[in-house]
Amino acid sequence: MSVIQARQLTKRYGNGKGVQSLDLEVREGEIFGFIGPNGAGKSTTIRMLLQLIAPTSGELFVLGTRIAGDHPKLRRRIGYLPSEIRLYPDMTGKQALEFAAAAHGVDLARSPALKYAERLQWDMKAKIKSYSLGNRKKLGILLSILHEPELLVLDEPTSGLDPLMQQEFYALLRELNETRGTTVFFSTHVLTEVEKLCDRVAIIREGKLVNVATVEEITAKGGHRIEAKFQAEGDLREAYGLLRLDPEAQFSQGHHVFHIGESLQETLKLLADKPLADLNIRRPTLEERFMDEYRKTEDREGGER
Amino acid sequence: MSIGRPKIAKEGNDKMLHFAMFESRQNRRSFWIGAAAVVFLQALFAGIGHLYLNNPDMEKMMKQMPQGMLEGFGIHPESFSTFEGWISSEPYTFYVLLLGFFAMNWSIGGIVKERDRQTAEFLFTLPRSRTAIYWAKWGSHVAQVIAISIAAYAATIIAGKVTDSLTDVGAVTSVAAAGLFIALAFMGIGYALTPWLSSERSGLSLGIGIVLLMFLFNLMAGFGDRLDWMAKISLFHLFDAFSLSQGGGMNAGAIVTAAALFALGSAAGWVALLKRDL
């Protein structure tokens, strides 16, 4: 079953930004990464999922319901963590939780929010105006999960959290996903998060989908990234034939960096008789692949123009 | 898929009350300020009313002042002959002005404050419809305005009784009701505008501007026959407060106009909220 399905989804704003003809499917129980730089259309898509804004055209289905107007009952099944947590400053954290719990028809004492609050080491008695960015984020996390939603929509979820809390948050997400089958739609521009957590990833650029695939598929497409240091000093790209393997091979601070497709065997043969001081072979990270995809799309569009 | 959800607490209409109480909590400070200002001013005016009544010095002074300006403040030559007449003059004008400010502030701020403070993303993603949230806010504001008007009315009656100047409770009731109707009409304008604005400060300025403009129109209309049209578009001129103080009864047309502005404005705001992106 699709938890989110967008067909030719378009949202146009006066300034031309928004999303264009988005075709997207998020399956039940998966952790889906939605990545792109600021202004790419991630938040616009999320705001359509939450019915804060209406699509200009196209269709959007969430948990089997076609989004057309306001669907309060559907929102009971969705948890939402916005990128910036803006709440009522004179309330305490606990009052905010109680208000949201009552709106969801949930008894706060029986909800998992209090247990998670302890895990996140969060003080619920203080007023929201006194909270640091991290504490506001923790409140946002608790608000998004207190009603144990079927779908969690997270917009830049770890901004403001320290590395320890980020790890705790990842663990919490995995737990919700594995034990309760919660589907997670995860928008971010921190690609290491996506690599750690997501099953599949969609890359969005200037309102258009560039790619949808599993993290492994995306990184595997990039072949291998090789970093070689030779015993001899200086730029040896020409001398050792590295430019034949990758015409865009780089030399920087004594290291030769180049990319190869699936010709790993051939590369190793070439390097075998060279005086190597150090060698590092790995799949490219998602970030490297993302930048690569982006550059290619930009070049393609630049060429078309 | 989800393995069951936490126990659902008491469902139903009490959630509407929950949201209305939440809105009241947000407006708590301005409510107490508004209540204190309106009630204090009305009690003060009513308490000193006996000093103005049948006071020859005051009558002499009134004759020296521009007639148009006096009319602008609802003062008639006979206003100072009874307590009810006095209440329908300057106290009534200030009552409408002050209550109008606060009523307009709450109504025009209803939605725009959520947008401007960026709390709309939290409030409107809760599992309550925009309709329910809008009308809960509306109910909270109306209750606040009615509560203040009842308290101001009670203060006027008590002060009138204590100073032994009150003779016709019905007339004072009509004057107070006229003020309340005008405040509700202002609220209608505020509701019609609130979904279209994005800055709380500009919303507040616009609301106060509308109330002040209508007051100025009413004031300027007294300066000459050619400016009569200004009175016609001013809500301050909707009821003849002096006639009400003399037991004239409330004009059905004025009631319908105020109620229509309130109802149509409220409905327009609701429809706009349903259609607008947040």
Set out the fold topology.
The complex is a heterodimer of chains A (305) and B (278).
Chain A: E1 2-12, E2 18-27, E3 31-35, H1 42-49, E4 57-62, E5 65-66, H2 72-75, E6 78-81, H3 93-104, H4 113-119, H5 133-145, E7 151-155, H6 163-180, E8 183-188, H7 191-197, E9 200-205, E10 208-214, H8 215-221, E11 224-230, H9 242-245, E12 250-252, E13 255-260, H10 264-272, E14 276-282, H11 286-304
Parallel strand pairs in A: 3-8, 3-9, 6-7, 7-8
Antiparallel strand pairs in A: 1-2, 1-4, 4-5, 9-10, 11-13, 11-14, 12-13
Helix pairs in contact in A: 4-5, 8-11
Chain B: H1 14-26, H2 28-52, H3 56-64, H4 67-72, H5 83-87, H6 90-116, H7 120-123, H8 130-162, H9 169-193, H10 200-221, H11 228-232, H12 241-245, H13 252-275
Helix pairs in contact in B: 1-8, 2-6, 2-8, 6-8, 6-9, 6-10, 8-9, 8-13, 9-13
Family (chain A): Belongs to the ABC transporter superfamily.
InterPro entries (chain A): AAA+_ATPase, ABC_transporter-like_ATP-bd, ABC_transporter-like_CS, ABC_transporter_ATP-binding, P-loop_NTPase
GO molecular function, one term (chain A): ATP hydrolysis activity
